[in-house]
Design brief:
The protein has 210 residues and is an alpha/beta fold. Helix content is 26%, strand content 30%. It has one domain: Metallo-beta-lactamase, Chain A (4-Layer Sandwich), CATH 3.60.15.
Length: 210
């Protein structure tokens, strides 16, 4: 699996383009803006985008869905709990203050343990609620795309509606830190750095001290 990290949009989202070397099929994870840069990379490298995967439904991570889908025809993917949660008008109204484009309807609803095939590569869906009810991480050894669940030296905020610090810490400890220690951590924002490993986060992340 090839991994391209781009920092995009007004909120500095880490967007990932993951692709299969054999088939040139690709998935775009969290297109949070700068859609032209994302599409240019895919075109330059001869990639066919089959999936747009959102680690969660916050506007800064889904605002590029529409343009990427219009250009590629890719399926938009999100966890079932976030599909339901962000469909609630009270929730969508709360987040609309950012003024970012809304996502088109989700095409593929996933749950914990589902596998998303990108060419001959596979991404395992790991449900990690806490930042949002349907937050997910995506694992394909040795890579884990952690969205706004786990950052380098930090964790996602839980003070938004639908957040839960207890759920987030539990998910990180039981679902992420149990992955192989050399697993690469690819975060949803580069607040403390753009890459880490599970071993490093287990040892040094102050939010995960037992």
């Amino acid at each position: 699996m090839l991994v391209k990290q781009l920092t995009v949009g007004m909120m500095g989202v880490c967007c990932y383009i993951v692709s299969c070397e054999q088939t040139k099929k690709a998935a775009v994870i969290d297109p949070g803006g700068d859609e032209d840069r994302i599409l240019d990379y895919c075109t330059t490298n001869g990639l066919t985008v089959t999936h747009i995967i959102n680690t969660h439904g916050h506007p800064d991570h889904v605002c590029g869905n529409g343009r990427i889908q219009a250009a590629t025809g890719a399926k938009i993917v999100m966890h079932a709990e976030d599909v339901a949660y962000f469909s609630d008008p009270r929730i969508s109204d709360y987040f609309s203050s950012l003024g970012l484009p809304e996502s088109p309807p989700v095409d593929l609803v996933v749950n914990d343990g589902d596998v998303i095939a990108v060419g001959e590569e596979q991404l395992l869906v790991i449900h990690t609620p806490g930042h949002t009810p349907g937050g997910i991480c995506l694992y394909s050894a040795p890579h884990c795309f952690t969205g706004d669940t786990l950052f380098v030296g930090a964790i996602g905020r839980t003070d938004f509606p639908g957040g839960s610090l207890r759920q987030m810490i539990d998910a990180i400890r039981t679902r992420l830190l149990t992955l192989p220690p050399d697993t690469f951590v690819w975060p949803g924002h580069g607040y403390g750095g753009l890459q880490s490993t599970m071993a490093r986060e287990a040892k040094t992340n102050p939010y995960l001290e037992l």
